[in-house]
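ARCHIVE CARD
CATEGORY: sequence design from structure
SOURCE FIELD: tokenized fold
FIELD CONTENT:
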């Protein structure tokens, strides 16, 4: 997989096949983020207000851990999952939520849309070897699966190369010679 770009609700995925052909495939993308309200009653209120927004395509509830250090003590929290109609007004809605007194914390907002698509939908990073299923007529991506490159490398590891270097200091009693073996 070469590269990914996001426009509106569409991801363009560039793939180079093992035969050397370059494919430009289209895939659906929907930006999402999570909102942790101050209290459950404010969460229901915020949910109702967000459901009336034209830029919000869908809403849902998700139970998630929000603090790694409170993992054992407090359990999961109920968060509102917001599915945006388009990425165009994504930042505008986030800015208004940051000022809203009912909102405590926003999650999944620090990643760019490309990163969010790669890590949450494709679950594969650029330059990764992948197996792809696509509609040949419409050039629409159907399914993408990572190929485990570690299995390929385990069969025939590359040869070792040796790197020598010396460190000289102003005092001759502390000269150091180091040899390192790397693959």
């Amino acid at each position: 997989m070469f590269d990914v770009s996001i426009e509106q609700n569409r991801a363009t995925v560039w793939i180079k096949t093992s035969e050397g052909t370059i494919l430009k495939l289209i895939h659906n993308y929907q930006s999402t983020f999570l909102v942790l309200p101050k209290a459950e009653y404010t969460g229901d209120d915020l949910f109702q207000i967000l459901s009336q927004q034209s830029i919000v395509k869908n809403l849902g509830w998700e139970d998630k851990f929000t603090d790694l250090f409170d993992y054992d003590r407090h359990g999961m929290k109920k968060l509102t999952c917001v599915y945006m109609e388009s990425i165009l007004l994504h930042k505008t809605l986030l800015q208004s939520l940051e000022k809203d007194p009912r909102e405590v914390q926003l999650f999944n907002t620090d990643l760019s849309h490309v990163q969010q698509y790669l890590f949450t939908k494709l679950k594969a990073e650029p330059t990764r070897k992948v197996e792809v299923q696509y509609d040949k007529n419409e050039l629409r991506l159907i399914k993408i699966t990572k190929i485990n490159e570690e299995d390929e490398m385990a069969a025939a590891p590359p040869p070792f190369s040796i790197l020598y270097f010396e460190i000289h200091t102003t005092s001759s009693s502390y000269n150091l010679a180091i040899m390192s073996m790397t693959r």
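CARD ANNOTATION: The first strand starts at residue 3 and ends at 7. Residues 113 and 138 are 23 Å apart (CA to CA).
SHELF: design records, drawer C
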